[in-house]
Amino acid sequence: MNQILDFYGKIISLYDIKIFKVCFDILKVIIIAFISKKIGYFLIDRFYIMQERSKIQFPEKKMKTLSSLTKNVLRYVIYFIAGATILKIFGTDMSSIIAVAGIGSLAIGFGAQSLVRDILTGFFIIFEDQFSVGDYITINNFSGTVEEIGLRITKTRDFSGELHIIPNGEIKIVTNHTRGGMRALVNIGISYEADVDSVIKILNEICDDVKKSRDDILEGPTVLGITDFKDSSIGVTIVANTKPMQQWAVERELRYRIKQVFDEKNVEFPYPHLDVTIKDGIK
Amino acid sequence: MNQILDFYGKIISLYDIKIFKVCFDILKVIIIAFISKKIGYFLIDRFYIMQERSKIQFPEKKMKTLSSLTKNVLRYVIYFIAGATILKIFGTDMSSIIAVAGIGSLAIGFGAQSLVRDILTGFFIIFEDQFSVGDYITINNFSGTVEEIGLRITKTRDFSGELHIIPNGEIKIVTNHTRGGMRALVNIGISYEADVDSVIKILNEICDDVKKSRDDILEGPTVLGITDFKDSSIGVTIVANTKPMQQWAVERELRYRIKQVFDEKNVEFPYPHLDVTIKDGIK
Amino acid sequence: MNQILDFYGKIISLYDIKIFKVCFDILKVIIIAFISKKIGYFLIDRFYIMQERSKIQFPEKKMKTLSSLTKNVLRYVIYFIAGATILKIFGTDMSSIIAVAGIGSLAIGFGAQSLVRDILTGFFIIFEDQFSVGDYITINNFSGTVEEIGLRITKTRDFSGELHIIPNGEIKIVTNHTRGGMRALVNIGISYEADVDSVIKILNEICDDVKKSRDDILEGPTVLGITDFKDSSIGVTIVANTKPMQQWAVERELRYRIKQVFDEKNVEFPYPHLDVTIKDGIK
Amino acid sequence: MNQILDFYGKIISLYDIKIFKVCFDILKVIIIAFISKKIGYFLIDRFYIMQERSKIQFPEKKMKTLSSLTKNVLRYVIYFIAGATILKIFGTDMSSIIAVAGIGSLAIGFGAQSLVRDILTGFFIIFEDQFSVGDYITINNFSGTVEEIGLRITKTRDFSGELHIIPNGEIKIVTNHTRGGMRALVNIGISYEADVDSVIKILNEICDDVKKSRDDILEGPTVLGITDFKDSSIGVTIVANTKPMQQWAVERELRYRIKQVFDEKNVEFPYPHLDVTIKDGIK
Amino acid sequence: MNQILDFYGKIISLYDIKIFKVCFDILKVIIIAFISKKIGYFLIDRFYIMQERSKIQFPEKKMKTLSSLTKNVLRYVIYFIAGATILKIFGTDMSSIIAVAGIGSLAIGFGAQSLVRDILTGFFIIFEDQFSVGDYITINNFSGTVEEIGLRITKTRDFSGELHIIPNGEIKIVTNHTRGGMRALVNIGISYEADVDSVIKILNEICDDVKKSRDDILEGPTVLGITDFKDSSIGVTIVANTKPMQQWAVERELRYRIKQVFDEKNVEFPYPHLDVTIKDGIK
Amino acid sequence: MNQILDFYGKIISLYDIKIFKVCFDILKVIIIAFISKKIGYFLIDRFYIMQERSKIQFPEKKMKTLSSLTKNVLRYVIYFIAGATILKIFGTDMSSIIAVAGIGSLAIGFGAQSLVRDILTGFFIIFEDQFSVGDYITINNFSGTVEEIGLRITKTRDFSGELHIIPNGEIKIVTNHTRGGMRALVNIGISYEADVDSVIKILNEICDDVKKSRDDILEGPTVLGITDFKDSSIGVTIVANTKPMQQWAVERELRYRIKQVFDEKNVEFPYPHLDVTIKDGIK
Amino acid sequence: MNQILDFYGKIISLYDIKIFKVCFDILKVIIIAFISKKIGYFLIDRFYIMQERSKIQFPEKKMKTLSSLTKNVLRYVIYFIAGATILKIFGTDMSSIIAVAGIGSLAIGFGAQSLVRDILTGFFIIFEDQFSVGDYITINNFSGTVEEIGLRITKTRDFSGELHIIPNGEIKIVTNHTRGGMRALVNIGISYEADVDSVIKILNEICDDVKKSRDDILEGPTVLGITDFKDSSIGVTIVANTKPMQQWAVERELRYRIKQVFDEKNVEFPYPHLDVTIKDGIK
Which residue range or ranges hold the Mechanosensitive ion channel MscS C-terminal domain (chains A, B, C, D, E, F, G) (predicted)? Predict the structure, then answer.
């Protein structure tokens, strides 16, 4: 009996001290959490102020939203760590907490990876100057003039007026149509009955005329020669090197002149042709 | 013999204390679990109340369901941690429990990642204002007018009346047709025999007429010129910049006028043409 | 010699106690495993009873199968943990066991993730009411009337009578054809020689007639105008907004009336047209 | 000198005892491994005996192979754990062993996941009765009559006689053609010159005749009406609901009758039609 | 001063013993590594000898290469573990070693998973007897006669003589053309002007003739009836069930007979047909 | 009471010492962090100086940016480790910090893997000299002349003037058109009525002429013979082996000569041919 | 006061010893690192010397580059481990370092896996002798003659002269065109009006002639019979088995002979055929 009382006393005293220590520890955790939060907030603010002076500028409103978002995340992270540390003080099994947290973090980590990829690609697009606002580009079959380059998304406007909003992570191969001269290319079909030499001579004259009349051509339209034997016509190709975005105008000009001159000089545009043999039918 | 008895006594006394301590520890775990649950419930309630004042508003019913769902998840998590801690007190091997739990968490984590991606993308769509209710957009070849933007899904209604329900995580590249003027584009085929200059003059007059008669055109219909040499016709293109969603009406108007004026002025729409040579058959 | 004997004695005594303790520990593990099983079974039963009162109802037979399945899984998990704990008592290296178990859990976890995704998506389909039994929907190019919505699979029956069994995890973008009015659309080709104004007038009269004679049309059939210049005909389009699933009947009605009236009023349906030039052949 | 000898003596004595203990420990590991193997074999045998009484029956030969396979795996696992534990007794660094084992387990785990997915999907196909032996189904564009449903693979035989062996994990969307009536569908082209009303009347009579003469039609063949304006003909559609797998016979019957009756009543099947204008050529 | 000397002495003595112990430990590690290697080599040899008596036989040369490869891998693994254990004895931080090793193992593990998948699938192909050498099979659109089935790759030879070398992991759905009778199928077009009944009668006679003259037909060629209304002909289908790989010969035989009999009985094969209306042109 | 005071005293003294030690530890951490940063900066600078002398040269500006970027990353890493170590000194639970950090690292790790792949592939392209600046290559259907090869991206310029910016990680199979002679290939259609032998003779003469007149042909144009029986013509093929990038010029030359010589020698280019049977129509 | 001094003294003495020990430990780490580097370098050199005598030979220059690359990697790994061990001696928290390192290793591990896959597949290609230099093979639709087989990449040269550089990891299914005889296949269209028997007789004679005149035919060209009923012709097929790469020459030879003999014997090659009915037009 005595022994039990004695034992009971020991436990009490043991737990007295332990409770004391536990309270002390919890207090310590809370204080550290509080200080960490303050320091974190201060660092976030400083980071965003520093950011303001950097190259990639954000509108102020976005800045504020992002800053408050970061603080929110920090707050929850600190709460979580503090809570976990307090639970540990009480002797809770940490590995099971981590296992539970693991489900969440795995899901978030996987889910967030596309965000990280967006930002990383965005950074490289800007850092490597892959395209600038105003460039006409093609990404994954979506063409358009760049309207906005952001860290996460790029906006391009199609000729049809449609606005394509493209997450940077979706951007793999970029085709930029406004870096250097572009090729204007016109395919003309000539009749198999026509005299190729004289037609090419006429085309050469047209090319010279067009070259003189326009100042957006970098390298004169040239007749390449016979580029294809087609079913009903001989394919002849004219190419020119023009200032970017002027290639279509040059092509239209070339086509217009060709039609005019061919009409003048009686060169025919060949229609599809068919040889027909009338077999002995009932007729 | 004496030694064994003595040893037996020692074990008994050892386990007495241990059992005592075990009961005490289990009690502690249960109390902490209970308090954690209460605190968790309180925080969840507060979070949802705070949410009510935020931008992205949920209908109240959904709110309730979500709140009770979150509480359920919390409850099971706390039960699991408490259970694991109690098992640990009894000296069960934790690593095997974690391994077992790992199967589940891996599966859930992977399975849930699409949910996380949905919500994250949804957040960015709203935050970056990629489209609003009423916009006509195209996502993965599914076009439609936006009816509802949620954190997890977006609903668009097609012209054909079909309702497309699109998880936000499936949204990669968004094409918005209602941000700025849209292009109306009409392709007309002119006979190779026709006089291109006079036809273009007629088309220019039609463009001026249409421009005057409609107020939904932002930038006058313009005749671009010869845009293609086709098999049986010369392709001429007219483009205009219209208010969004009016492009089709403008195109129909242009086509109607062209048909009218061409009929008046005897300009022919060329049919497909074929040159035929009758070869010596049996005939 | 004496020393060895003494040492031998020590080991014996050491192991005596250890064996004693080991037996005691094993007993403890078995008892805890037994109790855990009982509690687990009780909780599973209670969960399924609770489930019965919830929204998503399962047929009783399925319930029983699932309940016994869950119990089976629990039993094996408990056996595994108990076995691992006993092995640990004998001092077996746990990390190697975990490594071995890891192979299995990784495979199972990966394999099971599609199951988790099925159930999660199924939950959201029901929770967000994306479609109900009887709706006509399209998922991944598989159309059909919904026959059954489950947590794991959805069954739709095609017009052709085929039953599509679709795991919910495969459902990304849902197109629901029965939420609001559907569009009936009829394309008619008019000859280039025809008088467009009079044809459109006739079509307008037909539209008025159809509108009067049917009560499943929500928004009168309207002649949109000239929607295409085709090779051999001018494309005119009529659209109407009908009650869901009635769009095809309305389209057939419209086509029937058009055929009748065109026959009456001698409006021709244009056949494909070809201009032919007979070139100087041998003839 | 004395000190060194003394020290040497200490180490000897230390290692004497250690060697003793090591041998003892190794013996213990071997015994436990032996017992574990026996118990494992017993449980595997019992499991397979139990399996024999369950629903999904395996042929006995497969049973034996699987049982011996499982025992083999168990044996190697036990050898590996025993080996690792013995190495640990000698003080080898376990983490490096685990790292090495990790390479293997990662590879095996990833490689085996498709096996797990096969079995899991197979289980659900049987549990949910998605199809049975004899059903005509379509999976990933492979159609065929089901010949065998296994836990890992499903075998279907195509009409062309080909045997498709499909791992269950490849089965996503199942289309079952033998659950309920199937649709027979015949498209007929009617000349634009024909009298639609009379043709439809004739078709209706044919439908009635076919309905009477066959008992595998669930819902009478019905003339839907004009379902398409085609280039050279008006599309009329007949549908019927038949017993599964009889739809093609009904379609052939319908086509045969239509041909017969049209011949009798001089209704023409329209050939492709072309309007030709002979332009002024050289002729 | 005295104290420092004393302290220095202590450290020396400490390290003396430690160095002694370290040498002893290193020796122990080397001995264990040596023994492990011997045992490992012995087990590998025994495994390959056992393998020789099993079903899946390897050519002896391959056996030797594989055996020496396995021994090589074992040797490097043992070297790595021994090295790591020695480094640990010197007190190097293991976790950083593991982290470094982790990079490699992750890469190797991922890279090797396709190897594991190959072997696993190969095992199942042989175990389930999905195809045997000599079968004509189709895998991922690569058809061919199986020349060799290995654990890692399968070789098939195409009719064109090409040898396809297919890693087993690439094999998903196998189509086996040599398990049971194959279908021979001939589509014949009959003129719309022809008498279907008499043509079908003729075809039936041909079928009977073919049936009699060949012994590789399992189920007589049958005329299915009218299977399609085509633009210029009525589609009639004949099917037969033949011994595997004989279906093409039967089809050719059927076509040859049909051509012969149709020539005899003056049944025409219809050419594509066009109805032409000459519209009022300039002519 | 006395005991409590005594206990209180003990705790105070304990914590006095502890606080002392904590301050000391924190100081130590800060000093080590500071030194590590200095050493790290020095090593980074040295690395970049060394890099300057290596093969793959970067422009100086890029060098600076990269160097400051690396220093930034190092700084944050050191801050993070120092912060974590200080938190640990205060007794915070590290595993929860790691768990939180794990979310981030998982996301970053996954996101950054494409960067690593880019650089690794880039390294191999340069190391294996897969292509050099000026080569004409094809990657994933994007052809172009290489303008720049970087560690992360490769830039190629298309004939149309478009600049393709291709991340190296996207480069799988490279097709290099400028490593060795290229094939010029001309397909000519010969009438079925023509005398093949004489035509081939004429073509052979043309080939000889072209061979003599050009010095960019490595292996003379050869007439392969009849390579196809086409619907309306016999396909004859001419091939030549030319210097890279000259193949198109050679093809055009060949076509031009063929047209000239065929005109001279009255060899016809066959138009599409059709046999027509006029069936008994109304005529 | 006295106590504090005393305490201070204790700490000093403690740290004195500690600093002593720390210096000693750091020295030890540096020495071990130095020795490890030496041993590693020696082993790498020996490995490459051994490699020189093995089957897969590398050019010496590559050897040197690889050897210096491996040494570089080893050096950085040893630096990293030594650095980490020193930091640990100072008491830095290792888990946070590992976490940071984890980001990098994850990224590198993922990025490097394609490298591992390349080498592993390369090893199997060589080990299994899937193709040799000079073979004509097809991989992922890229055909070509193998020019070089490496551990990481395979180079094939297309008939068009293009060099395809294929990473071995991209090689899944290999089609080898030079293992055994190849099939030459010629499809001929025969007029429906022609006498099939006599034509086949003529073709058989041609086959015999070709067989005699060429020695690269393994199995005589055979007329298979009627393989297709086409729109305007009966398809007859001739096949032969030839030495690899000779199939195209044999096909050309066969086509040339057929054309010659058909011309001689007045067998016509049928043109596309059309039956035309002139309907009552305005004419």
Answer: 186-269
